[in-house]
Amino acid sequence: MTKVIAAALFLALQYYVYNHFASVEVHPPRASFAGFPLELGGWHCDQRQPMEARVIANLGVTDYLMCSYHNALAPAAPVGVYVGYHASQVNTAGGKENRIHPPAHCLPGSGWDIMASEDRVVDLPGLPGGPANVKRLVIAKGDQRQLVYYWYQERGRVIADDWRKFIDLFWDRARMNRTDGALVRFTVPMGRDEAQADEALRGLATALVPLLPAYVPN
């Protein structure tokens, strides 16, 4: 009974905050991913990969970067990058869901099985708040294997867990009138050498992550 009462009070508080606080959202200035560099040190992306309009609408994404970066010195390359920025994660007047979709939910729907999932501490230049926990997945579809690292980068935080993302979103909307944020995801094909895939992924992330605050405001 106590848990039911606590849950009811939490939902009531959430409703009150969402409807009586932060009625006008703040949208910090940011650069468009249309201008994101395709050359990053030894890494090169031939061209940005566009998404279909229906996919963009389904994701509720405002702006995004989707590109495969190659590096002649990284045997496991190319490394795929997706950064999807949401200016708002509040439902629209028509009830459209704009919150970031968790990859752990979307991947199985795309035919990928999650073979392994764990939190990893990464220390990358330009990562808000310094070393942070991120999600590391090994996924499979038929004979294909891929290594995936992802996190939510939102309002100066790096968040690995969905439950923590929800709490921070709730708090920041009440405190700062902001719900903006992004999903940052790196994906690399994984052969027999998992360490090689890790090295390639981290190599690109080291070059790319310091640039993100201009596109994903802290």
Give an account of the 3D structure.
With 218 residues, this protein is α+β, with helices and mostly antiparallel strands. It has one domain. It has five helices and nine strands. It has helices spanning 2-20, 53-59, 103-109, 162-176, 194-208, and strands at residues 39-40, 43-45, 63-70, 79-86, 113-122, 132-141, 144-154, 157-159, 181-189. Strands 1, 2, 3, 4, 5, 6, 7, 8 and 9 form a nine-stranded antiparallel sheet that branches. The radius of gyration is 18 Å and the shape is globular. It starts with a helix and ends in a 10-residue tail after the last helix. The model is unreliable at 3-9 (pLDDT under 50).
Q: What would you report as the Rg, rounded to the nearest angstrom?
A: 18 Å
Give the count of structural domains.
1
Taken from the alpha-carbon principal axes, the silhouette is: globular
Largest sheet: 9 strands, antiparallel
How much of the sequence is in beta strands?
25-35%
| Cα separation of the termini | 40 Å
Succession of helices and strands: HEEHEEHEEEEHEH
Helix content: 25-40%
On the 0 to 100 scale, the average pLDDT is 86
Say how many strands there are: 9
SS-based class:
alpha+beta
What is this entry, summarized?
Helices cover 29% and strands 29% of the residues. It is built from five helices and nine strands, in the order αββαββαββββαβα.
Keywords:
nine-stranded antiparallel sheet, single chain, 9 strands, globular, 218 residues, alpha+beta
